[in-house]
Amino acid sequence: MPRAKGQGRPAREKAGARGAEAAREPPLTLGVSGLGFVGVAMSVAFAHYGHDVVGYDVVDRRREEVGRGHAPFFDPGLEEELSSAVKSGRLRVAKDRESFFRDADVVFLCLPTPSRSDGSVETSFLEEEALRLGKLLRRSRSWKLIVVKSTSPPGTVRKIERIIAGESGKKPGEDFSVASNPEFLAEGNLVRDALEPSRIVVGTSDERSERTLRQAYSGFPGPFVALPPTSSELVKYSSNALLAVKVSFANEIARLAEKVGSDVYPVMEAVGMDPRLGKAFLRAGPGFGGSCFPKDLKGLVAFARQMGVPLPVTDAALNVNETQARHVVDLAETASGGLLAGREVALLGLAFKRDTDDVRESRAYPILGELLKRGALVRLHDPKAAESFRAGLPKILSVDPGPRVRFCETPEEALRGANLALVQCDWEEYAALPPSAWKELKDRLVIDARRSVDPATMRRAGVRYVAIGKGEP
Ligand code: UDX
Asked: How many separate domains does the chain show?
């Protein structure tokens, strides 16, 4: 859990290697450009550890909202941390880029790096910002450190450095420096991951940048790993790819377990007891979604292809993921006697995972698409993500599903009178439903693609429970 307020000592007072060095340096103002998931979480964390933080975003409303201490999206504990950071005066939002750049000693670029249609990474937001910062740097007399926090292919730091040097006429390493500092923040856990990082990885080309980043992270727990920029950039992609490989591997074994009458969950529990492997990210499910895994894996594969290096393991993880939604719907179809056409399915959980309202790359989209393709009618429910899911529908579905798709206010409403339920997301709320709610299903059938509802509740409800990764013994 995030540590209690006040437990993180202010940077200047913090003891220990990073803190002691930092104590000798004049205090820094840390600038965060881009107040999305990463930017807000990092601003809050820097402020938590006593740093002076200034944020900036091109969107007026975002600046205004964050400046008032309101989180622009839901993530547990974020609103409280943000509001306390703003109230304490340690975090403020600049009204324009000029004053932001003037005040910041270090600028963390937390800007989007979306996928292009071929999977490669679009770094134009970073490049355009580098041009604008380069212009401002021309008039600046102080050394600035620009830090690329956005996930971006190896070589991006160098590219940003060239752009800023060209635009400002200033010398990299002397008048300014550019560094890499990837983030490892998981949604639903943003505050804890920001406050207690498993490691702080930086990629720097000069001693001053490394020293400055050590100071920026003074007070934070976790090892500080200093690498050259290209290696730091590669750490982020490799971490996400390896985690996604674990998920896809569990999903692959889940399919086999279903066939041979085994259960992938205890199997992976036992596999993960080997400390060389670890238990995390071995939970079979509907496949990985979110803003990072699908995009970053495709980005890594595309980048490596450009370099002439095939990455078959990463490619395979993507392939398994792309077929997993179909596999989940196959389970539902088989359990329904081979026919979904005309049946009404309650699809529970639309977020890409629990505790977030984020639906980016949520597996609920391909699952819904597949259900509609097979002629099912679908009722949708999510406690937090229904609106954003609805907004994303036209982009995903090629034809308007019309009345075949209906949003429900409560899970009970979704279940009442539907034929079967398919649990896509492991919200606590679904696990807490009483047997009476599940009893309302006409076919008394539940497909649990997350292994999140209790089989005993299902038994009490007289419901047939089909769990991903579990075959009939
Ligand atoms: C991830 C990384 O964890 C984070 O370090 C990085 O900075 C951004 O990408 P996030 O996308 O927020 O974070 O979610 P994460 O918890 O990693 O889950 C990714 C996907 O994998 C989700 O769809 C999740 O449901 C799925 N998953 C995860 C599984 O299906 N099984 C698992 O065992 C773990």
From this structure: 2
Q: Are residues 201 and 267 in the same domain?
A: no
Q: Is the CB of 183 under 6 A from ligand 1?
A: yes
Q: Where are the beta strands (DSSP E) in 252-385?
A: 344-348, 377-381
Contact 350, 386 (CB under 8 A): yes
The string of pLDDT tens digits covering residues 404-419 is 999 999 999 999 999 9
H/E element, 227 = strand 224-227
Q: What is the pLDDT of residue 22?
A: 52
Query: Nearest C-alpha to atom 32 of ligand 1 is from which residue?
Result: 281
**Is 3 a domain residue?**
no
Q: Assess if residue 196 is contained within a domain.
A: yes
If asked whether residues 22 and 83 sit together in one domain, one would say yes
For ligand 1, what atom is nearest to the CA of residue 425?
Answer: 25
β-partners of residue 448 are 423, 467
1: pLDDT confidence band, cut at 50, 70 and 90? very low
Q: What's this model's pTM, rounded to 2 decimal places? A: 0.92
Residue nearest atom 21 in ligand 1 by C-alpha distance: 288
Which amino acid, 260?
Answer: V
CATH number of the domain bearing residue 363 = 3.40.50.720
Domain shared by 262 and 400, yes or no: yes
Domain that holds residue 220: 8-227
Distance 187 CA to ligand 1 centre (A): 8
Give yes or no for residue 283 CB within 6 A of ligand 1.
yes
Does 47 lie in the same domain as 122?
Answer: yes
Average confidence (pLDDT) over 110-127: 96
- Whether residue 24 lies inside any domain: the answer is yes
SS3 of 147, please?
strand
Angstrom distance (rounded) from CA 347 to CA 408 = 10
Least confident piece of the model among 2-11, 184-193, 279-288, 396-405: 2-11
Domain end marker among 177, 193, 227:
227
CA of 136 to the centre of ligand 1 (A): 37
Average pLDDT for 185-194:
95
* Residue 354 alpha carbon to ligand 1 centre in Å: 11
Q: 211 and 266 share a domain?
A: no
For 56, the 3-state DSSP assignment is: strand
202 with 262, same domain? Answer: no
- Nearest alpha carbon, ligand 1 atom 6: 184
CA of 289 to the centre of ligand 1 (A): 7
pLDDT of 399 strictly over 60 = yes
User: DSSP labels for 35-76?
Assistant: -SHHHHHHHHHHHHTT-EEEEE-SSHHHHHHHHTT--SS--T
Q: Residue with the nearest Cα to atom 19 of ligand 1?
A: 288
- Assess if residue 441 is contained within a domain: yes
